[in-house]
Each structure stands twice: as C-alpha cells, then as structure tokens.
Amino acid sequence: MLCRKQLGLLALGFAFMHVLYTMVIPLRYSVRHTLISQVINERKANKTTPFDFDNTEAWGTDSFYVLGILGFCLYVLLGITSLPSVGAALSWREFSFVQSKLGHLTLLLCTAHGFLYGWNKFLRSSTYKWYTPPGYMLCLVLPSVVLLLKLLLITPCVDHTVTRIRQGWERGRAGG
Ligand code: HEM
C-alpha cells in the first residue's frame, strides 16, 4: 500500500512510452510495406474489399482511440496532482476527488480501451498462439477485478454499511 504512488508513476511512464510508440506505428517501414502490398495485391486480384467502408469497424476503432486519449489525459492529471507542490495547493476534498473519483474513472477508461482493443479478437482461435492468452487479455484481468470490486463497494447496501463502520459503528454495540 505504501508504494501505490510509485507504482502509479511507473505505470504512467509506461503509458507515455505506449503513446509514443503508437505515434510511430504508421511511420514504420514494415507497416507501410504491408499496407501498400495489400492494396497492390487486391488490385491485381481485381478486388475492392479494402475500400468497402465498415461502419462497425470505424466506430470501434474511433471509440478505442477516444477512450485511450481520454484515459491518458486523466492519467497525466493524476500524475501532476501527485506532485507534492501541486497536492499542497489543493484542499483535501479536491485532492481526494482527483485521486479517488478521477482515478477510478481513468481506470475505467483505460480498461474500456483495452476491451475495445480485444473487440472480437478473443473469438478467433488464431489469437491464442501456443494455446496461451494474448498480452492484452492478461492486462485486463487485474483492472477488471478492481472495477468489479469497486462496483460492489458503491452499491447502496454495502456503501451504507462501510460508511457507518468508518464513522465508528460496531455490530452489537449499544446505541449502534
Ligand atoms: C493517447 C492515448 C492512447 C493511444 C493513442 C493508444 C493507442 C493504442 C493502440 C493503437 C493500440 C493497439 C496497438 C497494436 O495494434 O498493437 C493500443 C493498445 C493497448 N493500449 Fe493504448 N493507447 C493510449 C493510451 C493507453 C493507456 C493510457 C493505457 C493504459 C494505461 C493503454 C493500454 C493499452 C493496452 C493494454 C493495449 C493492448 C496492448 C497489446 O496487447 O498489444 N493505452 N493502444
């Protein structure tokens, strides 16, 4: 629990690297080569499939990018507020709103980004090379468990009891 901040900053560093590497994807020789040869092959075979506009695919990829970008922006905000000088300028309510509420929202956005990346890939057997789950699936396990537990905690019956326990209530104590 004591190294939560360090772990969060480490993850932010990885997210930065992920964003930078993502920007470079279209510039890579192998990616440009694959795209161009795909079009040329389709042209040679007299097919027009790559030019058909797939609405579902368009919505899926756009939402995937939007969630990633929003998640990343909030993540940076979390990183900035964790700086001692910035944190000191905020009231406790502001700090806990950013770190707790926005923190969970960031987790939700980034997890949704990962789920949209999976889209329908998980249905294809080619995804499971050597019969093992791909990296993105493993990445989704922990955040999904955290979000499910958070969902459980904010249900009114559990939330009410937890709030009372925080306020000092004990089962069976007189006046409780
Ligand atoms: C500006 C923000 C972001 C952009 C533009 C972006 C873009 C992308 C792209 C293009 C991919 C697919 C890569 C591929 O085809 O191999 C991807 C995958 C992924 N992204 Fe992001 N992303 C962003 C932020 C984030 C953040 C903040 C997180 C989590 C902290 C995240 C987690 C992931 C994960 C887990 C995958 C799956 C990686 C894999 O298994 O290959 N992304 N993202």
From TrEMBL:
Keyword entries, A-Z: Membrane, Transmembrane, Transmembrane helix
Topology in the lipid bilayer: Multi-pass membrane protein
Compartments, as annotated in UniProt: Membrane
TM ranges: 7-27, 64-90, 102-120, 135-158
Annotated ranges, domain Ferric oxidoreductase: 2-98
GO MF terms, alphabetically ordered: cupric reductase (NADH) activity; ferric-chelate reductase (NADPH) activity
Listed GO CC annotations: endosome; plasma membrane
Keyword Transmembrane tagged: yes
Signal peptide stretch: none
GO biological-process terms attached to the record: copper ion import
Annotated InterPro entries: Fe3_Rdtase_TM_dom, STEAP_metalloreductase
UniProt xrefs under Pfam families: Ferric_reduct
Family stated for the protein in its record: Belongs to the STEAP family.
Protein name according to UniProt: Ferric oxidoreductase domain-containing protein
Natural source organism: Oncorhynchus tshawytscha
Lineage start: Eukaryota, Metazoa, Chordata, Craniata, Vertebrata
